[in-house]
Amino acid sequence: MDIVLLGTGSPLPDPRRGGPATLVRTSGHQILVDAGRAVVMRLAAAGTLPVMLNAVLITHLHSDHLTDLNDVITTHWVMSQQPTTLTIYGPPRTREVVEATLAALAPDISYRLAHHQDTLTWEPQVEVIEVAPGDEFTIGPVTVTVGATNHRPVEPTVAYRLSDDPASVVLGGDGIPCATLDDLCRGAGAYVQTVLRDDLVKLIPNKRFLDILDYHSTVEQAAQTAQRAGVSKLILTHYVPSMQPGQEDEWRAIAARHFSGEIVLGDDLTTTSI
Fold first, then answer.
1. Which of 234, 210, 131, 217 is nearest to 175 (CA)?
2. pLDDT digit string, tens, across residues 174-197
3. How far apart, in whole angstroms, are the C-alpha atoms of residue 57 and residue 129?
4. Is there a catalytic annotation at residue 64?
5. pLDDT digits (tens, 9 = 90+) for 209-236
6. CA distances from 121 to 49, 77, 86, 227 (A)
7. Phi-psi bin for 173: left (phi > 0), alpha (psi -120 to 50), beta?
8. Longest dimension (CA), the chain
9. Which CATH class for the 2-264 domain?
10. What is the mean pLDDT of the chain?
11. Are 189 and 272 in contact (CB under 8 A)?
């Protein structure tokens, strides 16, 4: 199982980092988790295209985690040589978001259908499946287990555990530590968590920015979750503030004070295997 950090950025624009998105490759299947800025460009850089995806999983409906879902839908559609369904899983209201996205794309869809009358005769084929904590389903050989996370006041929010025996990875999305996330991570081969540095955030005297402290995991908290759950590998992403070149060892050292396993972090397209 390979885990590719397609986008490691945050809502703050960063020319070096795309928005939150992670690709999991296993047993010939490719599953995209979240779809932040530049996700299709990063997929291409990783040797993948939307039409090659087996599913898209959305952790929550904050804009930075799905702002380029429209590009995934459109590119999947125009590159398909026959009607092909893109399946999107997400928490309640995901269907509402996708329907609104398709409505916004309606002019473009009509233009392309009119222009390519002989080769493109179908509209985008999108299936939305809304999930809740405790749900379990399969994508080919991959078993997906849905767990609750705490990102309040954003709710509901979910994490996913992808298992392809013997490998397993938990993708936590945004949120602070909670018992349900611990349970989902128990014994996993890897745990991907979005993180911030509270020591750096507190240096910026902006109330709106400081508000993020109460619903995002710090590096320390992510490491503590991984340690409690007996995870083998901790993968950090969605760095706030943006991790600058040369700071990797500093961020890794903070996590290492609380977690004894392997710690992975880096730029977009950082890839690790379990």
1. 217
2. 999 999 999 999 999 999 999 999
3. 10
4. yes
5. 888 888 899 999 999 999 999 999 999 9
6. 21, 11, 17, 52
7. left
8. 61
9. alpha beta
10. 96
11. no
- Number of residues that this document lists for the chain: 274
Crossing angle of the two packed helices 69-79 and 106-115, in degrees rounded to 10: 10
DSSP per position, 15-39? TTBPPSEEEEEETTEEEEE---TTH
Spell out a b/e string for 8-22, using b for 16 or more CB atoms within 10 Å of the CB, else e.
bbbbeebeebbbbbb
Tokens of 258: 């609380």
Catalytic entry in 64, 68, 174, 198: 64
Whole-angstrom distance between the N-terminal and C-terminal Cα of the chain?
A: 6
Please list, in sequence order, all residues whose beta carbon lies within 8 angstroms of the beta carbon of residue 128, skipping any fewer than 6 positions away: 88, 89, 90, 94, 95, 98
Global model pTM greater than 0.90: yes
Q: Which three-class secondary structure string do you get for 159-215?
A: EEEEEECCEEEEECCCCECCHHHHHHHCCCCEEEEEEECHHHHCCCCCHHHHHHHHC
Question: In the block, which residue shows the tokens 């397609």?
Answer: 6
Long-range contact list for 10-17, CB < 8 A, 24+ apart? 10/64, 10/238, 10/239, 10/240, 10/242, 11/62, 11/63, 11/64, 12/240, 12/241, 12/242, 13/37, 14/242, 16/242, 16/267, 16/268, 17/239, 17/242, 17/267, 17/268
- Taking alpha carbons only, the member of 63, 60, 69 closest to residue 98 is 69
H helical segments located in 19-118: 39-45, 69-79, 94-104, 106-115
Cα separation, 207 vs 221, in Å, equals 22
